[in-house]
Design goal:
The protein is α+β, with helices and mostly antiparallel strands. The chain has one domain: Nucleotidyltransferase, domain 5 (2-Layer Sandwich), CATH 3.30.420. It is built from three helices and four strands; from the N terminus they run αβββαβα. A four-stranded mixed β-sheet has the order 3-2-1-4. The longest helix has 19 residues. It is globular, with a radius of gyration of 14 Å. It starts with a helix and ends with a helix.
Length: 119
């Protein structure tokens, strides 16, 4: 029963954020999802409803690395920024998906900023 409350609370926060955060062709939305072991990020054009580029800690480049989850998130952010630059994207809107801006979410954002994305 407590799990349902926790999930519904997170969804309310997520929807409250999504009311204000909207991605376009020029400024896509950087959406973050994290599980207990992995972290995923993607750039989304909400006008067309398409994912422009994505990166995750499940990619082959990260398979052999033995680093902490926060450091992994930072690397994912840098990889996403490189893919975005190749696609000609420089400015994004950050969507933390209801997660606190802390820990792995913050590390991913810092890595994306270091990689050259502006938000």
């Amino acid at each position: 029963m407590a799990t349902h409350k926790k999930i519904s609370k997170k969804l309310k926060i997520k929807y409250r954020i999504r009311k204000r955060v909207h991605g376009t062709e020029e400024k896509p939305r950087l959406s973050v999802f994290k599980s207990n072991k992995q972290i995923y990020a993607q750039l989304i054009n909400d006008v067309k409803g398409v994912t422009l580029t994505a990166a995750s800690s499940r990619e082959k480049a990260f398979a052999d690395k033995d680093i902490s989850k926060s450091e992994m998130a930072k690397q994912v952010g840098k990889v996403l920024a490189e893919k975005a630059k190749e696609a000609g994207i420089e400015n994004v809107v950050f969507d933390r998906s209801g997660y606190l801006y802390h820990g792995r979410v913050k590390s991913l954002a810092d890595g994306a900023r270091e990689g050259g994305l502006k938000f």
